[in-house]
Write a structure and sequence with these properties.
The chain has about 350 residues and is of the alpha/beta class. The protein folds into two domains: about 5-85 and about 145-210 and about 295-354, FAD/NAD(P)-binding domain; about 95-140 and about 210-295, D-Amino Acid Oxidase, Chain A, domain 2 (2-Layer Sandwich), CATH 3.30.9. It has eight helices and 18 strands. Strands 1, 2, 8, 9, 10, 11, 17 and 18 form an eight-stranded mixed beta sheet that branches. Bound molecules: flavin-adenine dinucleotide (FAD). The site of flavin-adenine dinucleotide has 43 residues, from helix 1, helix 2, strand 12, strand 16 and helix 8. Flavin-adenine dinucleotide binds near residues 249 and 320.
């Protein structure tokens, strides 16, 4: 058993949540070690679509304050990551055309304009006239692969420590903090944060009801001018990257930790997309993949103190983890430092499941 390490904060999980929190804590002057059992930014954060869907009326209403706070933080979050990493993270689209039933529009208080078919066709020339109603959402999207490249570099540039290939085996109480055990070292820290995404319930820090929710996606090739905004229905979404790639997603499957790509599921997804965008039916496929969203019983993230002293959870971001990363980093930092969080976190407390 190797070298003794010491840090103010140890974070388990090198996904977008763990690394964004690590970056925020570094900027408050704390020493931070992120432990990632495989490679950083290769799990759900790599598999995501990249929509910043804060105004999607399908989101749980109680999540709205945190979503809106994160949307407001996003420009500065991207700027900081780009400045520290030297990598560009372009915004790929700025509007979403969403099919929705009228009741849901009125159930939300978001003042959403309806789109005429002609308007919709201007942004989506190949849109089939299905007779459905659409709304416009002022909503941006990114390519998560850009963040996957930039975020670990930004964290390291801010003098964070990232240990890849390093699983957390256990966390024990110690005098004034915790001892985190990995296969190679014992790390003494004042506090520990569980950012293990879909695997957060496996850490043994209390019975956290995080469930993996599998999502399969595919990328197809389509001329950029044929789709100039995100197109989203309850059954699928199409996210153009602006360079001829269009990501089509995503299945929602309760299949445990299985991450295999199943051709029939991808075929159904593409067929559904083809009903709205007939060109999808003949478009070349570039890539297919699967990832695990960290789901929770009430669809809300889990943010706050764990049962064990000096330990915290920041997980359960389900379909909105890319969007919620900056707000999560900020409010968790505020909470851990004894400050009042910008957004009330009562509804996200881990204790709600006890
Ligand atoms: C198909 C799909 C589409 C999505 N689309 C969107 C979208 O459009 N917009 C959006 O905002 N969100 C989207 N999401 C959701 C988003 O991807 C997740 O909410 C977010 O990535 C969760 O980040 P995370 O850091 O918590 O988890 P992850 O990125 O999964 O990272 C968790 C990390 O913890 C590591 N780990 C686990 N156990 C241990 C251990 N014991 N020790 C050390 N490390 C450990 C894992 O290896 C992993 O790297 C999508 C997700 C999927 C799957």
């Amino acid at each position: 058993m190797g070298r003794p390490l010491v840090a103010d904060i140890v974070i388990a999980g090198g996904g977008i949540i763990g690394l964004s929190l690590g970056l925020e804590l570094r900027q408050r002057g704390l020493s931070v070690i992120v432990l990632e059992r495989h490679h950083a930014m290769q799990a759900a954060s790599w598999a995501a679509g990249g929509m910043l869907a804060g105004r999607d009326p399908e989101n749980p209403p109680t999540l709205l304050p945190l979503l809106l706070r994160s949307l407001a933080l996003y420009p500065a979050y991207l700027e900081r990551m780009q400045a520290l990493s030297g990598d560009a993270i372009p915004v790929r689209t700025r509007r979403t055309l969403q099919q929705l039933d009228a009741q849901k529009i009125f159930a939300t208080d978001l003042n959403i304009p309806l789109a005429s078919y002609q308007e919709a066709q201007f942004m989506v020339p190949g849109l089939a006239d299905t007779g459905e109603k659409f709304i416009w959402l002022e909503e941006a999207s990114l390519d998560p692969r850009d963040i996957c490249r930039a975020l670990p570099v930004a964290f390291l540039a801010e003098k964070g420590t990232l240990l890849e290939g390093t699983p957390v085996l256990s966390v024990e109480q110690a005098k004034d903090g915790v001892v985190v055990e990995t296969p190679r070292e014992h790390i003494h820290a004042a506090a520990f944060v569980n950012c293990c995404g879909a695997w957060a319930g496996e850490l043994g820090l209390g019975g956290l009801p995080v469930e993996p929710v599998k999502g399969q996606m595919a990328t197809i090739a389509l001329a950029p001018e044929r789709l100039r905004c995100v197109l989203r229905t309850p059954e699928f979404y199409a996210i153009p990257r602006g360079d001829g790639r269009v990501a089509i997603g995503a299945t929602v499957e309760h299949a445990g930790f299985d991450q295999t790509i199943q051709e029939p599921s991808i075929a159904v997804l593409l067929r559904t997309a083809g009903e709205f965008l007939p060109e999808v039916n003949d478009a070349p496929r570039l890539e297919s993949w699967a990832g695990l969203r960290p789901g929770t019983p009430d669809g809300l993230p889990i943010l706050g103190a764990a049962e064990m002293e000096h330990c915290w959870h920041a997980t359960g971001h389900y379909r909105n983890g890319v969007l919620l990363a900056p707000a999560t980093a900020l409010v968790m930092t505020q909470l851990m430092l004894g400050e009042t969080p910008d957004v009330s976190l009562d509804v996200f407390a881990p204790s709600r499941f006890v």
